[in-house]
Amino acid sequence: MRPRPMSPHIQVYRPQMTSLLSIWHRLTGIWLGIGSVFLVWWLIALAAGPQPFAVADGFFASWIGRVLLVGWSFAFWFHLTNGLRHLFWDLGLGYRLDTAYASGWAVLAASLLLSLVSWAAAYTVLGP
Length: 128
Prior knowledge:
Layout: H1 17-48, H2 50-61, H3 63-90, H4 97-126
Helix pairs in contact: 1-2, 1-3, 2-3, 3-4
C-alpha cells in the first residue's frame, strides 16, 4: 500500500497576504491572551495597595514594559480590524482577490494608525 501524498506546504507555495494575515491573526490572539495575564496582574496589584501597584507600574514604565504595551496595542487593533474583515467575509462580502488584498492592506494601515493614535492620546493625557 502506497502512502497518501502529503499536501504541499510553505516549501511549495509563496506566502500570500491572505495566509500571512491569517497567521498574524492567530499570533495576535495568542499575544492578547498573554497580555490578559499581565492585565490581571496589574489589576490585582492595583487592588492590593500602593506597594504592589508601584512594582507593576514600574514594570510597565520600564523599556521592556513599554515595548510589550506597544506590541499589545498593535495586536489589539490588528486583531479587531482583521476580525471585522472576517465578519464581512462571513457575510459573503470581499472574496474577490483584489478586494481581499485591498482589505488586507487596509487592516495593516488601520492597525498602525489606530496604534499611533492610541499612544498619542495616552501621551497627551498622561504624559511620558
